[in-house]
Design goal:
The structure is a single chain. Helix content is about 35%, strand content about 20%. By secondary structure, the protein is of the alpha/beta class. The strands form four sheets. Strands 2-3-6-7-10-11-12-13 form an eight-stranded parallel barrel, surrounded by six helices. A two-stranded parallel sheet has the order 1-14. A two-stranded antiparallel ribbon has the order 4-5. Helix 1 (about 30-40) packs parallel to helix 2 and helix 1 packs parallel to helix 8. The chain is globular, with a radius of gyration of 17 Å. It starts with a strand and ends in a 15-residue tail after the last helix.
């Protein structure tokens, strides 16, 4: 059991709107400020989605660059992961555009969903060629994949990519539970997925909607990390009577962690575990 837990902050996502909750950060300035508050509370890394001027999800490098620049002004060591989601964008050129940022704007990590899946109303299409192409670009650019697995088959596909030389350890996995068409938020599904991870893997558990608190609590009790934020759940309580803020969700995780005798893994420590450059102007995987 690793006493120091990874806290992966997911402030925005692609679904929440201001009509759903006023607390979701959408503009560059809102996202930067929300991450600023989160960093003061204590996080290891942040998983970033960008929105355009009317709040629609975007892949545009110019918007991502403003977010990254704004965050790194006050948190130059924080590990930054850029979303490469296929939910709204199907072309490799669009999905990989944020990976082209370099120098002080270079992302440390990029999300890599390991197969296609269905959400309640939409699909996230990740063909074998797309997944392998994104993995290849990240390897060439020295950007570490944030491996997203919604079921055990996706973990098996990560091992396949390892055999093909497209992935190399150490790894970081987000294991996501509670989506209608994927692994459910129960002990058996979680245990099987954790047990099947490749060697040299760090992992966090996430729950969709009402399952967020359950899976975060389970992970903190059993030695894993936590993915938490309004991207996955906009409510503070399971009865859905009170909308949450990102700060409230983070503070609750810290409270539960303290009760379990767990300490936050700093960004510096996480960088060392994943062979990432030390930050403060140097980003991405070392020796890339």
């Amino acid at each position: 059991m690793n006493n120091n837990f990874i806290l992966n902050f997911t402030p925005t996502g692609m679904i929440p709107t201001k009509e759903m909750t006023e607390h979701v950060p959408l503009s560059v300035e809102e996202i930067v400020e929300d991450v600023h508050r989160a960093n003061e509370i204590g996080i290891t890394m942040v998983h970033l989605h960008a929105r355009d001027e009317v709040g629609v999800p975007t892949y545009k490098q110019d918007i991502y660059s403003k977010i990254v620049e704004g965050i790194r002004k006050y948190a130059p060591e924080l590990v930054l992961c850029i979303s490469l989601s296929g939910r709204n964008f199907g072309e490799l050129e669009k999905r990989s555009e944020p990976l082209m940022m370099e120098g002080v704007l270079k992302p440390d990590m990029g999300s890599l969903t390991l197969s296609s899946l269905n959400f309640n109303r939409t699909a996230s299409v990740n063909s074998p060629d797309m997944v392998q192409s994104l993995a290849r670009i990240m390897k060439e650019k020295g950007v570490v994949p944030e491996l997203e697995a919604f079921d055990i088959g996706m973990i098996n596909y990560a091992k396949y990519l390892e055999r093909k030389g497209l992935l190399e350890p150490p790894y970081y996995f987000n294991l996501l539970f509670g989506n209608i068409a994927c692994s459910q938020a129960n002990l058996l599904h979680a245990g099987v997925m954790i047990n099947d991870l490749p060697k040299e893997s760090y992992w966090s558990l996430a729950g969709i909607g009402n399952e967020q608190l359950k899976m975060n609590s389970l992970s903190l009790a059993f030695g894993g990390g936590v993915r938490v934020g309004l991207e996955d759940n906009i409510w503070f309580d399971t009865n859905r009577t009170r909308l949450a803020t990102n700060s409230e969700l983070l503070e609750r995780v810290h409270f539960i962690a303290e009760a379990n005798g767990r300490d936050l893994m700093t960004a510096k420590e996480f960088r060392e575990h994943l062979n990432l450059a030390p930050g403060n102007g140097l980003y991405g995987r070392i020796n890339s």
